[in-house]
Amino acid sequence: MKVVKGYEKSRSALSEGRRLDLSSVPQAFLDSSEQIFGERLTPLEVVSRIIEDVKANGDDAIRRLSLLIEGSEQERIEVDPDVVKSAADSVDPLVLEALSLSADRVRRYHEASMSNDWMDFSAGYGAVVRPCERVGVYIPGGSAPLPSTAIMTAIPARVAGVDEITLCSPAREGGLPDPVVLAASQIAGVDRVFAVGGAQAIAAMAYGTETVPAADVVCGPGNLFVTLAKKLVYGDVGIDGLYGPTETLIVADASANPTLCAADMLAQAEHDAMARPVLVCTSEQLAAQVAREVETRLRRLSRESVARASVEGQGTIAVVEDVEQAIELANAFAPEHMCLAVADPWSWIGKIRNAGAVFVGEFSHEVLGDYVAGPSHVMPTSGTARFNSGVGVHKFLKTIPVIALEDAESVALSRTAAIIARAEGLTAHAEAAEIRQELS
């Protein structure tokens, strides 16, 4: 794990590779693209072809692409509702209970964050808040099923009042998504489930096929191809954001527990070899202790190889003078998860500007955010917390301004509008305003 000292060196180290990279691919991918498509294509070219194929050929394209890319014959694209309902029978009851508890907290959090209609009749303006009609959720397959992501995406949409929620997830053995994902979709209130993965799933939800209905918003994390697909369909459909590898930045002072810091860093590292665990601390002694703890704990992880690749490739410990500098670095990094392991964490909340979520104190740890705290765990990565927020009801709501002026106020404001319109050379605008004055 890289250890750097001093503010300037730390800022330089943390800024390396900060932007979302959607272009770098291993040689093996180029080779496989030639096998699948008959020529060497970049990821962008591959995804563009997949999207155009799905737009033009619908279900046939999904079946053909599933066979070409995943090697699976997709007889039925939609999962039978009875199969979805019965999936819970094959899931550990303790897991179902945990998912239900998580769903309850997630639901209550998003209910508390709902926006409401408002109207100021004296001023003549206000707004109504309306949900999107249909949302498509994507749940990755990858090396492990992610039932928690079904909870964290579908429930905010349901709380927002979305009419229909569909879910796509790659088929596993038997041509179906993992049973625990199906069970989670039931708990989260998903209406329809489709055994479709990758860029073709995003295209299907964006444009619709004979089986998969077109959505107004597509949300959820995914690999490079899913992310590229979301980028390409944006504008024809809304998206929640573009996501890179997961990341955690811990701000710590000398009072922090090195074991807890190391455990939290490794909890991120085991997600993905490209995950980014970061500690910004004010104590060289703590930095050394955390580095030792990370190495000790790495050896006993079931996903040691993945976590080690993350720690050795992207892991960073930065040592700075004080918490003020640490928070400044954290804001510049704009992490997905910002954890405050300092003596008086609440005194620093007002200084935080850029973060997907903030975890206050060592026991409000990030793993709780992944599963059961309440806010969605689908959060901005790669520095996009500078301008984006995590998935919440606001992703599925539209605020529609309402203008309702009394006649006298309208006439008074029309004079101002006409002056501005004539300054812009828009005489029809000006006359539409001035005629109200003539009729008053």
Overall description:
It is a single chain. The chain has helices at 7-15, 27-37, 43-70, 81-86, 93-112, 147-160, 179-188, 198-207, 224-233, 258-269, 284-298, 304-314, 323-333, 366-371, 407-423, 427-439; strands spanning 2-5, 118-120, 125-131, 134-138, 164-168, 192-194, 217-219, 238-239, 247-252, 276-281, 316-319, 337-341, 357-360, 397-403. The chain is α/β, with parallel strands linked by helices and 440 residues long. The mean pLDDT is 95. It folds into four domains: 2-18 and 244-373, Rossmann fold (3-Layer(aba) Sandwich), CATH 3.40.50.1980; 27-70, no CATH class; 81-239, 3-Layer(aba) Sandwich (Rossmann fold), CATH 3.40.50.1980; 405-439, no CATH class. It has a six-stranded parallel beta sheet, sandwiched between helices. Strands 6-5-4-7-8 form a five-stranded parallel beta sheet, sandwiched between helices.
First CA to last CA: what distance? Answer: 75 Å
Q: Which CATH-level-2 architecture of the largest domain?
A: 3-Layer(aba) Sandwich
Number of DSSP helices? Answer: 16
Quantity of strands, as a count: 14
The low-confidence runs, each spanning 5 or more residues with pLDDT under 50, are none
Can you tag this structure with a few keywords?
16 helices, 5-stranded parallel beta sheet, Rossmann fold, alpha/beta, 440 residues
Q: Topology of this protein?
A:
Layout: E1 2-5, H1 7-15, H2 27-37, H3 43-70, H4 81-86, H5 93-112, E2 118-120, E3 125-131, E4 134-138, H6 147-160, E5 164-168, H7 179-188, E6 192-194, H8 198-207, E7 217-219, H9 224-233, E8 238-239, E9 247-252, H10 258-269, E10 276-281, H11 284-298, H12 304-314, E11 316-319, H13 323-333, E12 337-341, E13 357-360, H14 366-371, E14 397-403, H15 407-423, H16 427-439
Parallel strand pairs: 1-11, 4-5, 4-7, 5-6, 7-8, 9-10, 9-12, 10-11, 12-13
Antiparallel strand pairs: 2-3, 3-14
Helix pairs in contact: 1-13, 2-3, 3-8, 3-9, 5-6, 5-7, 6-7, 8-9, 10-11, 10-12, 15-16
